[in-house]
Structures are given as C-alpha cells and as structure tokens.
Amino acid sequence: MSATYVRYLQACNDVAMQWIRIILLNIACTMCKTDFSRNKMALPYEVVISSDSTGQMWNCCIWNPLSDTTSIHYKGSGSKLRSLCLLSGQYILSADSNKPLLNMWEVQRREQHQTRMVCSGHVSCLAASPDSAYCIGGIEEKLNIWQISTGHLLAVLSRHFQRVTCICFTDDGSYFLSGGEDNLIMVWDLASTLQWEQSQGQDPLHIWSHHALPITDLHCGKGGITDRVVSASQDQTCKHPFVSVWSIIVDFLLYLHSYGIYHQARCSCSFVFDTPILSVTMDAAQLRIFAGGLDGSIYSVNLFEKVTGQQRLIEDHENTYKGHSKAVTCLSTSMDGSMLLSGSEDSTARIWHITSRQCIRTVLHKGTVTNAMFIMMPRILQIQTGKPTLPVRPFQRHLYVPSTSTVLTEAVEDEDTVNGTPVRWHHSLQIPEEISWTEAVQSALHEEKPSLTVAERQAEEVASLKHINAQLRKFAAENILLEQKT
C-alpha cells in the first residue's frame, strides 16, 4: 500500500511540474510580447539591432525578434558592412556608407540626429572592445586604434597589403583579429599594440595565410585566449583554426628566436562549400557553424561530427536554410542557441528557428542589410530617466604622441560617490623625463584624491548653520526659562 501511495505522489508531482512549466512559459511569452518601445520592461532580454546601406527610413533600429512590436529607430545615413557597434549599451556607433564619417547616437534618445566624427578616410569596418574602452577601425589597409574616453588615436597598424574587410575581438578583449583583401588573417595583442614606442613597427602575433581569396568575415567564440576562430572567404571555404594558450606562447617564442620569420598556425579543419561564403558565425556552445553563401543559402555544419581528414566538402542540403534570394551578408545566433538571425542583400532580415529550420519572422529594410546582431536589451532603455555614464570624445584623425613631460588630466581617472552622488576625480600629474610611464601611473593611482571645493563649501556652510541654530536654541531656552522664573 505504501509503495502505491508513493507512486501516486510522484505522478501528482510530475503533473504539477508540467503545469508549472506551462505557466512559466506563458509568462515568458507575455513578457516577450510586451512593447519595449514604451520602456515598460523590468528584466533584460535579447533584442535585435540591424542597419541597412541606404538610410532612407533610418540608419539602424532595435526590434523584438519574437513579436511585431514597434521598433526603435535611429535616423541617419546608411551604415557600412561590419561597422555597427554598441558601446556599453549606451551609445550606437557605425561607419557611414558613403562618406569618411562615424555616426554615433545615444541609445535612449531616439529622435536625435547623430553625432558625426570625421575620419582620415572611408572606414571599411569597425569593432569595439567588450569593455568599450577601445575602438578599432579599418581605413584602407591600416588599422586605427582609438581610446573611446579621450578620442586619442593611440596607434596606426600597417601590416595588411590591401583593404581591411573585418575586425573582431576575443570575448575578454585581450586580442583582436583582422582580415583583409590580401587573403591574410592577423592576430594582434591589444596591450602590445598600445605601446607608444612600438606602435608604428608593431608586428602581429600570428599571420594565417590559409585562404586563397579575400577574407569576408571573422567570428570569435567564447573562451578568451583559447577562443575558437572561424573565418570565411570568397574561395568557397570556411577555415576553423583553434587558438590555444600553448600555441600562442610557442608561436611568440619562435617569432622572437627567428628574428621575423613567422611560424604559421595550423588550421584544424577546413570546410568547402558550393558557393563563396560571405558571412559566418557559431552558436554560443560552439557546436555548429553557420555560413551564409553568395546564393542566399545558409549552411549549418556540425563541428563534432566524426570525419576523416582536415578538409570536409559540405553537400548536405538537408541542413541548409532557404529563404533569401540574394547573398547573405551577416549572421548572428541568440544566447540560448534557439534562433538564428540573418541579413541579406534582398533587403530582409530573417529570424530562423535553428532546430526546425523554419523562418519565424521577416523584417523588411530599404536596402542591403549591412549589420544584424542579437544584443541584450540595453538597461538604459528600461528606465525613464537614464543618462549615459560612459565618457565618449570625438575621435582624432592624427596620431596621439605624448611629449616627454605630459600633464595627465583625463587618462588617469577614478570614480567615487559623495553623499550618493557619482563624482569623477581628475588627477593632474607631471611626468619628468627620468620617470618611466609605469612609475608615473603607479604614483597617480596611489595619489591622494583631491578635495572638492564645492563639497567643502557646502559642508562648511552646513556646519556654520548648525552652529548658529544651536546658539539660537540655547539663547531662546535661556530667555524663556529666565522669564518664567521672574
């Protein structure tokens, strides 16, 4: 009897858990269908940001991938391919499609006109570091590295022989990769490129020359220095090199020992398709590669399928997503790995269900979709009175060269709060010639914070008022008691 009763309770628990799952699923669907353009969302969730090349209706927009709610539009001219960046969820930055300009918008100010920054040439691609501290743009065959908080052009790297087509960062921001029309992929150490003495003659950590035609796209997975990197090219292949800690350290030592003779990194796997590949991405778990072709097809490749050899010919049309009529220009996957986002030259952005390969939503644009990606819902859109806290300055066109005696007023900063109010402390530090940069930064970090004159005045005024009030109370009490006694 007891065993039957236990089985009955287990069955009841299973039914209850099913009902709980159904209720939670309905709540999640209701939240996803909420109009986020009215800033009523309390919890962050994934949205899509996309742009096109014409800018007839808007430059870029943020929209919900699961419902037909009103989008958030940002007006301006068109955006260049692979040039849309989100800075700490507070600013949107993109390269103009026809002029040597960078356009920037505040995320929470939708009806504003963009802020324009003039560059030394047409920006072919753009990428921002994960911490939004640095921005890298490709201008012809050069890589320009800007510091976002000051706008200083810290370095100009000239190692590509032809135009740079794509840039991507590792998820920890310590390395970045660049691909160009010279068929080369270069891996750079960000810290090394920012050294002022070596910025002009800085060499990349790796040079991958496995492709035979121009590089069209790059994607870095998760894992920092152990990222899996996928590259796409017009030679109808999709290279998949695996960069590990061991290979980076060994290659760097070989480079130092051989005096400029590069040790080529080995390509772990190569995928050959029926059409040139223009875009590539991976899911969050790094189980599949999605490759967008020139004919509008999107190929799905299982990375853990048992194969022989390092080269695979992809002929499995069952794992192909069909719907676009022209070339697929950009791809992105959702955080949970259930949805695939694609943009195409047919002026549409599509949301695909990865498992069933069904298109669940199509968003029309007025031109070629140049950028489309999943992002977390910006926090600043969920609050009514949000203001950007990220310091951003206009990017400079000339290389920033510090003098031997430099006054630091913006480079070394710290944040604190006074009575609940955010306060930014500015350090002014003279750097003599005999003191190194490292010693100067350490001395600035250990320097005592200067006092705020406004805060001091307010504190002194409050103290004096308290003293006056105390004297008045004492005088009044003594007079009242004296009158009562008399």
From TrEMBL:
The keyword Repeat applies. Keywords: Repeat, WD repeat. SMART domains: WD40. One of its GO terms (biological process) is rRNA processing. Gene3D superfamilies: YVTN repeat-like/Quinoprotein amine dehydrogenase. WD repeats lie at residues 157-192, 321-362. PROSITE patterns: WD_REPEATS_2 (PS50082), WD_REPEATS_REGION (PS50294). InterPro entries: WD40/YVTN_repeat-like_dom_sf, WD40_repeat_dom_sf, WD40_rpt, WDR18/Ipi3/RID3. GO terms for cellular component: nuclear pre-replicative complex; rixosome complex. The keyword Mitochondrion does not apply. Coiled coil: none annotated. This is WD repeat-containing protein 18. It comes from Stichopus japonicus.
